[in-house]
Amino acid sequence: MRLEDVAAKVHLSPCYLTKLFKQETGETIGEYITRMRIAKAKEHLLEGDQKLVEIAGDIGYDSPSHFSRTFKKYEGVSPSEYRKQKTGS
């Protein structure tokens, strides 16, 4: 769903919705979505042996390398390193 679609559903302009979201939460809509995606990825990484490419797709990334770079930016380690640290495997 695009920002324009969400804004239309709540009867606000995309610009105003973006401003209001930032004002109320302290983060942009993009930052929020990324944070939620990374949280979901962490769950997947701890659940089992799902491949990184599958996890990336499940949380909305078309590119596994983009997912890995973003994950490392937010968590300080790669998804593989995170899995090893948390599960010992």
Descriptive report:
This protein is mainly α and 89 residues long. It has one domain (3-87): Arc Repressor Mutant, subunit A (Orthogonal Bundle). Helices cover 74% and strands 0% of the residues. It contains six helices and no strands. Helix 3 packs across helix 6 (79-87). The protein is elongated and about 50 Å long. The protein starts with a helix and ends with a helix.
Describe the structure concisely for a colleague.
This protein has one domain (3-87): Arc Repressor Mutant, subunit A. It has six helices and no strands. It has helices spanning 3-9, 14-25, 29-47, 52-58, 64-75, 79-87.
Helix content: over 70%
In percent terms, what proportion of residues is strand? Answer: under 5%
Helix count equals: 6
Q: What CATH architecture do you see?
A: Orthogonal Bundle
Structural class: mainly alpha
Mean pLDDT: 94
Kindly report the name of the CATH homologous superfamily: Homeodomain-like
- The end-to-end span amounts to 36 Å
How many domains would you count in the coordinates?
Answer: 1
Element-by-element helix/strand order: HHHHHH
Bulk shape: elongated
Mind telling me the C-alpha Rg? 16 Å
* Strands, count: 0
Instruction: Write down the CATH class.
Output: Mainly Alpha
